[in-house]
Here is the input.
Amino acid sequence: MANCKHLNVCKFYNKYKNALDANCRIYIAKYCHGCGELNCKRLEFRISNGYSAVDNYTPEGGVLILLDEEVLV
Ligand code: SF4
Here is the structure.
């Protein structure tokens, strides 16, 4: 498994990398720490629009809504 080369600058990754939410952990394992980077919707959004998606736009193209206590930053 290869890490995404955008880990250091990705707002989604840096906000949710320690989140407790099961779906969030799956996104990070599958995309950010897996080979899913190639299909990451955040990267597609960045290329199409020239700027980053909102922090909670997921690698699968949905919007993640978590309670504050579920996000450990
Ligand atoms: S969300 Fe996408 S761009 Fe961000 S670290 Fe994960 S795979 Fe890379």
Observations:
- The chain has a mean pLDDT of 91.
- Residues 32 and 69 are 22 Å apart (CA to CA).
- Residues 11-70 form one domain.
- The pocket of iron/sulfur cluster is lined by residues 4, 6-7, 10, 12-13, 31-32, 37, 40, 42-43, 59 (CB under 6 Å).
